[in-house]
Specification:
46% of the residues lie in helices and 16% in strands. With 148 residues, the chain is α+β, with helices and mostly antiparallel strands. The chain has two domains: 96 residues, Winged helix-like DNA-binding domain superfamily/Winged helix DNA-binding domain (Arc Repressor Mutant, subunit A, Orthogonal Bundle); 51 residues, 2-Layer Sandwich (Dna Ligase, domain 1). The chain has a three-stranded mixed β-sheet, with no helix packed on it. Strands 1-2 form a two-stranded antiparallel ribbon. It is globular, with a radius of gyration of 17 Å.
Length: 148
């Protein structure tokens, strides 16, 4: 997701929450701004740490409540990548998405886009006469640093 799209996501999130009757709140604004600047999914603890680095103290319970609210409004998705850690990632209103490489040694998550993979999934769905509404691809292995 490009920087422009992430900025648009932040504005979209504010509008959605405003229209749903949620008043602007300092903690929610800080979390939305943080998420809009991230290239990939984060855990709630990573969110807490990054907010603290910005001198924006938001309690862990508040972070979870805000993430739940964003999820209820289709603004973030919970990702379970198979490492028993829940991560949260923006949902692009235009439907763009990416997949993930997960290092099983250090836990590094790397986002990737692959148009050929998307075409293969579309082809497979047609061949099996299956309507695919959503999908997530996670490739497990070892990052460059852990291979050495």
């Amino acid at each position: 997701m490009s920087t422009r799209v992430r900025s648009e996501w932040a504005e979209h999130a504010r509008v959605v929450l405003d229209h749903a009757g949620h008043h602007k709140a300092r903690a929610r604004t800080a979390l939305i701004d943080l998420l809009a600047g991230q290239p990939c999914a984060l855990t709630a603890l990573e969110i807490e740490d990054r907010l603290r680095e910005r001198d924006q103290r938001v309690g862990r319970a508040s972070i979870y409540r805000i993430l739940e609210l964003l999820g209820e409004h289709g603004l973030v998705a919970r990702l379970e990548l198979g490492d028993s850690t829940t991560r949260y990632e923006l949902i692009d209103p235009a439907g763009e998405h990416h997949h993930h490489l997960l290092c099983d040694s250090c836990g590094t998550v790397v986002p990737f886009h692959d148009r050929d993979l998307e075409r293969a999934i579309e082809h497979l769905s047609r061949r099996l006469e299956f309507r695919t509404d959503d999908h997530e691809v996670v490739l497990h292995g070892a990052c460059r640093g852990c291979q050495n």
